[in-house]
Amino acid sequence: MEQPPPPPSEASLREASASLARELQLHPLVARVLARRGVTSPAVARSFLTPRLTELTRPDAMADRERAAERLADAARRGERVVVFGDYDVDGITSASLLTRVLRHFGADVRTHVASRFAGGYGLSDAAVDRLLVDRPTLVVTCDCGTSDEPRLERLRALGIDAIVVDHHKVPDAPLTALAFLNPHRPECGFPFKGLASVGLAFSISAALRARLDPRFDLRPLLDLVALGTIADVAPLHGDNRILTRAGVNRIADGEGCAGVRALLTEARLRFRLTARDVGFSVAPLLNAPGRLGSATPTLELLLTDDAARATELAHQLAEANTQRREISSALIDAAMKQVRDVYGATLPAGIVVAGDGWHHGMGGIVAGRLVDRLDVAVAVVAMEGDEGVGSVRAPRGMKLFDAVDKCRGDLITCGGHDGAAGLRVRRDRLDRFRASFADALAAAPRAAPAAERCDTDLDEGDLTAGLARDLLALEPTGDSNPEARVMVRGAKITDARVVAEAHLRLSLLIGRRTLPAFVRDGVTRRERGEVPLVGARVDVLGNLRTDPWNGPEAVQIEPVTLRA
After folding, report:
1. How far apart are CA 281 and CA 284, in angstroms?
2. I want to staple 144 with a disulfide (CB 3.0 to 4.6 A). Which of 87, 185, 326, 404 is the partner?
3. Does domain 65-316 have CATH number 3.90.1640.30?
4. Contact residues for 534 (Cβ-Cβ < 8 A; gap 6+)
């Protein structure tokens, strides 16, 4: 077997980063980060730092793309009734919004629906089909769902209704009866970039539709939706996703997003240069909030309206829903943690299941994610109602979640998802069997070894400048597959620690002769686990350097990943 090449030596990395810094006029730290990630050619680095839409992967080999575009073009030409149906998360709603805008522009009679956690659940359920049939469509397009919905697709086919599936979830072995099935994970799909979220696929179909109907139609104003859906779905931010997301975030930051996106930025008080992290932590929760509490329709309406006043009204409605969501999820996290202690005691298996009557199943994913952070095991949170429960499953990074859940299928009514997140339905009388099979499946599930703590460079007191923090924005969008630069500050003294928004900590760090603020997400829990030393301690801080616009244009702060005394 061919052995992988050895990692580059420190000397070669220093030489490569010095060359990049010199030829591209980069800050040495930015050049060092690029070199460590294998970007050593100035040409490749230039492409990475200034990605262009013209560099997107050619879509010719994408299975069913041309078939889907031709059917959509026919529907637009004839003014057919088309139902666009999206899942209730951000990727599903942005995908549905994007295709709705494009199809309406080209003359189709479009009605748009989104799934409901509380009336049918994830994907194209029977209840969802009942709703969309009221509109009497001749064509249905599913967005971010459909891959696992063959019985409902067959129902549409039997009624003479064509279906196009746009999705990126795991592909089952059995074929779909859809007219066209766009999913990069299909074995027969030759499109080389497999990381597109559903909204990226929707954008690609829209480009094919434009080529058929009006090549002058500008798709760039829709890139804000592509960026929102891609980041919120934690899709890998390299390759095509980096190109699309960088362009979309830049449009949003320049005030060129749609009316709903501009209103969201105002509601979230994002008045500074936007990053992918801002989208993930400040914008995506607002978009998700209505669908967690009830209907996701307000989010859909926000992304479809061109009326600024209505957008402002809806954005405020989303913010209020998010406040309510935080209150409910906080109480459920406490209840779930108590059940973990009561059921499992001090020794936890690799996969745990918690369930409760009256639990709000719109919060399952949030609660599961928080328990994963605290316990470092896979977690299924099941909201019981009557004889059945709806569950959300999350797992630590590197764990093969979907395969493990799939092994439990015999104890479930249904399940679906991918390795990042999964959903399920379970009967009450099978809950204990599922708890056992879930623990067994996760015990046998492969898990990638935890990565060594990454540190790109040590910084001294004089290095902690807003100029460096701004230079690091050249790496944006950062996230999955393209992490932020991580810096180390040694020997800082914690001089103050205050609780912020109930769960986080705001520290004051004395570094040399200057004081630097540090924001620790979920810091209260981390302090309880002993991960945040007490006031007065000297610590080495590994984290991310950011600007602190609330305290002036030249202010900076650090967001610690670890603090070690």
Report:
1. 6
2. 87
3. yes
4. 494, 497
